[in-house]
Amino acid sequence: MTTAPAPSPEISSPAVADLLRSGLEGFGLRDQQIARYFIDHAEEIPFLSAGEIAETLGVSGAAITRFAQRVGFEGYPHLQRVIRQDLRATLGMKQPGGQDSVVARFWASERANLEGLQNIPEARLLAFARSIAAAQQVWVLGARSSYGISLLVETILASLRPRVRAYSADLLLSRPEQLLEVTPDDVVVVFTLRRYSRATTRMTHALHKQGVQVLLITDQGASPLSKIAHQCLQLPTQGTDVLASLAPFISVSTLLAALVAHELEGGHLKQAEALNAEFGVYEY
After folding, report:
1. 276/266 Cα distance (integer angstroms)
2. Count of CB atoms within 10 A of residue 63's CB?
3. Rounded to two decimals, what is the model's pTM?
């Protein structure tokens, strides 16, 4: 078997994929199977143990370790670490490209995202809304840019039902005693998109252990929370050359709120509107 050249510690995952592709013909059948898995599932590798990959492929954990060593790494953790480093770089904020047609490209990508949302099955959206409507408390969790979406969702849902609160995953991680308020009748609506926040992952796992139903709204990448989510919506987030689009998250959140309102038949909303009128919250 031909052994691929040893990569440097800072080699990027596209280079790793190229390395594996270039060596495919010289690999044995088992190594070809493993190599194709690494090529096709690069975004999932940072969240998978060697044992999990081995179970999926029907090989031993030792086979994964030996494969990583044969292609020039110290072992599977080294290969996993290199892939993770590159994903952090390639999925981060990018430098702006040329100025030509920036506006046109932006609106084209937004239209494509919104059209893609129509492919989400209605039954899946209804199941999400019913879980939110039936929960004793609704935790809305996000970090960094996702926290802004969480605050918006809190504002919308709080007018439709009681006991809704947005949490910053970063702040919640520093005040874990708030988990004492959790009950198994609660749901947590989690917003996450690449690059996935460690704080969001850790706090969602903690809530899951408390028996909370996890409703995940994410992008089309390989979220580390997809395995524990009770329900999951994956949204298209094609953006400009600098940022991913947040519009699909806002659109779906608004739709879910409308569905929740129908489930609850507007009782809480009527009471909230009466209080708004009594306190003169709005000018007109």
Report:
1. 15
2. 18
3. 0.73
User: Which tokens go with 173?
Assistant: 């991680």
CA distance 54 to 34: 9
For residues 266 and 152, membership in a common domain is answered with yes
Inter-residue contact 138 to 157 (CB < 8 Å): yes
Q: Are residues 60 and 200 in the same domain?
A: no
Please check whether residue 156 lies inside any domain of the structure. yes
Q: Where do we find the tokens 């953790």? A: 77
Task: Assess whether the previous peptide bond of 194 is cis (omega < 30° from 0).
Answer: no
- Number of CB atoms found within 10 A of residue 92's CB: 9
Q: DSSP 3-state assignment of 215?
A: strand
Q: Are residues 134 and 205 in the same domain?
A: yes
What CATH number did the domain enclosing 32 receive?
Answer: 1.10.10.10
Please tell me the total count of domains within the chain. 2
Radius of gyration of the CA atoms of the chain, in A:
22
The last residue of one of the domains, among 57, 90, 123, is 90
Give the separation between CA 173 and CA 84, rounded to whole angstroms. 23
Q: Which of 162, 140, 129 lies closest to 262 in space, CA to CA?
A: 129
Q: What is the pLDDT of residues 9-36, one digit of tens each?
A: 444 445 677 778 888 888 888 999 999 8
